[in-house]
Amino acid sequence: MNGNDTNENPIPPTIMPPPLDMAPLAKPPSNWPKVLGILMIVFGSLGALGNCWGVAVPFVMPFFRNMMPKGQPDVFEIFDDWQIWIVGNAVISLVLSTLLIILGVGLLKRRHWTVGICPYWSIVKILVVISEATLQYKMNVDQMQTISQQTPGMPGINPGVSSAIGIFSFVVTLLWGCTLPVFLLIWFKRSKIRTETAAWAERRSIDAMENV
Predict the structure, then answer these.
(1) Contact predicate 121/96, CB 8 Å
(2) 69 part of a folded domain
(3) Which tens digits make up the pLDDT trace of 159-175?
(4) Is residue 50 situated within a structural domain?
(5) CA-CA distances (angstroms) from residue 176 to 4, 52, 73, 102, 187?
(6) Tally of structural domains, the chain
């Protein structure tokens, strides 16, 4: 054995693995635009269906009147006095419901313009809900008084009772109708949400520049 064998069979150099990519992982997109967008589409669709009935009231009321037995109190008489207000509120609410569906679709697609329109929609919706709740209160009180007057032998309804029922319907209508718009006002005022949604506009600008 020769002392130079170690020089003839050198040890191969150690192969170092490539450096790991230490770049931070991309943060997954938040899920709230999808959830909130779907809720807005659902509530907008339900509202549109209900408001279509309000618009159709003048056309279907004669049909229901003819179905009532003779001698029965005309429970639909109250609609004659409030018909213009019912239809007017229904038309405005139908437009708002349709706009809510459009905003929901825009939110699903993460469009920045939804952030600017939602607060204005919420303010108008709250005003319309207050109008609807007031109309509902007055109609309930008038309807109970009209029925008691049309029914022979039936004692008149205590004004305090009719007012209490009217106030209850007013509160329920107000709470139900204002829940979503108040939530949207608060949600889109949060600094975290405003920062996130601002990035949507920047992302679309970058995509538009890349596609040029």
Answers:
(1) yes
(2) yes
(3) 677 678 778 888 999 99
(4) yes
(5) 94, 19, 31, 21, 18
(6) 1
